[in-house]
Amino acid sequence: MINTQTIVSGKLNPVYVGAISLAMVPPVLLMINLLPETAWPVDYSWASNNISDLGNVGCGFFDGREICSPMHLIFNIGMIVLGCLVGAGAVLARSAWGRGRRATLARSCVLLAAVGYVLVGVFPADVNLGMHLLAALLVMPIANIGLLASGFVRRDSAMWKARWTSRALGAAAFIASYLHFAGPWLGIGKGGMERIAVFTFLFWLGGIGVLLLRTARDSGRFDR
Length: 224
Prior knowledge:
Blueprint: H1 5-8, H2 14-23, H3 25-37, E1 60-62, E2 65-67, H4 72-92, H5 101-122, H6 129-149, H7 163-182, H8 189-219
Antiparallel strand pairs: 1-2
Helix pairs in contact: 2-4, 2-8, 3-4, 4-5, 5-6, 6-7, 6-8, 7-8
């Protein structure tokens, strides 16, 4: 049991810090996507451009797209920060998933996704394509397996409250991950499909962080 008195007394509970980390994920995500694209001297489209085009260090044609991102450093550092926030949330707020194999699977996938976001920032696509593709696998299909598995945790876990949301979003985001790589893109483009796969997972994490904070506020506990 985690009592909110430990928060106000100055002894921050690890789960509280983890919840804050998760709640910060969506604002950071939006900042590192919206700010760098304003500096592009060429056309940038959420439908045709990959998210990580914002992190390419060079200007020119890459994979059939004209790319030039003067603020690539902001994006790449932001992705590393994003990975650290996701990882901190998964580790510090791990009790929110409860116990059992499905909880372990879900947490493990979220942690792997955190590693993936760090790799995206460290290895832009035009610097090390192999490592960048590995990162893409971690932040899309693997991350969304974790999201889907989070919908099947035990009844006595905090995550149980969001089970139906996690199941629905997990299924949709995993399908979007597959379609991003294999097509068809259903009229929203490869970039649009990628954003469904990536943004769904990250906004869900932010929602889980808020859920944990509200649970503590209303009941004095994080665990259910």
